[in-house]
UniProtKB/TrEMBL annotation:
Keywords: Calcium, Metal-binding, Repeat. It comes from Takifugu flavidus (sansaifugu). This is Guanylyl cyclase inhibitory protein. The keyword GTP-binding does not apply. The lineage of its organism: Eukaryota, Metazoa, Chordata, Craniata, Vertebrata. PROSITE patterns: EF_HAND_1 (PS00018), EF_HAND_2 (PS50222). Pfam families: EF-hand_5, EF-hand_7. The keyword Cell inner membrane does not apply.
Amino acid sequence: MGQAATLPCRRGESYVTELYEWFRKFINECPSGLITLHEFQRHFCDGTVGQESAEYAKQIFRTLDNNGDGVVDFREYVMAISMLIEGSAVEKLRWSFKLYDKDRDGGITRQEMLEIMQAVYKMSLAAALTRPNPLTAEECTNRVFARLDRDNNAIISLEEFIEGALDDDWIREMLECDPTTVKVERPLRRDAVLGIHG
């Protein structure tokens, strides 16, 4: 709990209360205080569409695991969830860039983007999370690359990713990790559960 001092505090006391409730939910579901890939996939897939979302869950987990140690702790979890819910467009796009940059080399190749697009499409269609997109994952990847790879080097840099997405609503919608597809639920506040009014 000593790590809490480094967490972003955006909404004062209500944020601290909500953070506490996230911690309680996290510890209830993961008593060790850590989530492994297998546990995350099981929880994530049960909350979405089963095995159809397993590959997307794997990529989300990899992105949550900031230090690459193979587990996600509460700090990594809450920092990402907090940012996805309340972060600026640039913060969300930075996080999404890490999701697409599978090998963490600072650039997104067409193959990396295609693999994530295919995982997202597979999960979204199975869950009916979004209206059917008339474009295939390959067509979306090609369209995104045509618009974002400004220097035509077959790699999208972080700068190209953010600038291009901020300039194009369709691309931003395609690339931003949407918390509603990740089934991020804010935990109920304890006083709301107990029927206590402030």
